[in-house]
């Protein structure tokens, strides 16, 4: 498969609309539609890099459909999906998730956080972070 097919497949796999990809990359929707619908239309290298970065894949993957062996071992399917979803979040939500990950690492699991003093948990987040109103649930 070529760039067009691999890009289509990746968008479907990651459940990303062309409109969203346009917003993330700064590439017009019309231009992206051309890459998806015109068989011989290939992006320039710099545009292909923007698209690949936004999708969390390599340019090589978009062109050939194959990941480098090193990339496969480093980033599994779940990790790629997680990274892509993370990129789509606003900055405050990304900071909140980083805080949650750090707390889970420190305390061992989300379940152990639930049973501990919630004031310690919530004080670990940025101001206006985790919604303290949900702490009693």
Keywords:
434 Repressor (Amino-terminal Domain), mainly alpha, 68% helix, 137 residues, single chain
Low-confidence regions: 129-137
| Major sheet size, sense and barrel closure | none
Helices and strands: which structural class?
Answer: mainly alpha
CATH level-1 class of the largest domain: Mainly Alpha
**Rounded average pLDDT:** 76
Fraction of residues in H or I helices: 55-70%
How would you portray this structure in words?
The chain has 137 residues and is mostly helical. It has 2 domains: 3-75, lambda repressor-like DNA-binding domains (434 Repressor (Amino-terminal Domain), Orthogonal Bundle); 91-134. 68% of the residues lie in helices and 0% in strands. It is elongated.
What is this entry, summarized?
The protein is an all-alpha fold.
Q: How is the secondary structure organized here?
A:
Layout: H1 3-14, H2 18-25, H3 29-37, H4 45-55, H5 59-64, H6 69-74, H7 77-88, H8 91-107, H9 110-115, H10 118-123
């Amino acid at each position: 498969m070529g760039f067009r097919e691999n890009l289509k497949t990746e968008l479907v796999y990651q459940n990303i609309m062309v409109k969203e990809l346009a917003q993330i990359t700064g590439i017009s929707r019309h231009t992206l539609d051309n890459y998806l619908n015109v068989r011989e239309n290939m992006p320039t290298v710099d545009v292909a890099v923007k698209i690949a970065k936004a999708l969390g894949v390599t340019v090589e993957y978009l062109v050939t459909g194959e990941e480098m062996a090193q990339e496969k071992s480093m980033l599994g399917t779940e990790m790629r999906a997680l990274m892509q979803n993370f990129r789509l979040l606003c900055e405050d939500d990304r900071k909140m998730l980083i805080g949650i990950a750090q707390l889970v690492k420190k305390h061992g699991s989300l379940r152990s956080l639930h049973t501990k003093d919630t004031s310690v948990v919530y004080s670990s987040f940025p101001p206006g972070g985790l919604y303290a109103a949900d702490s009693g649930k």
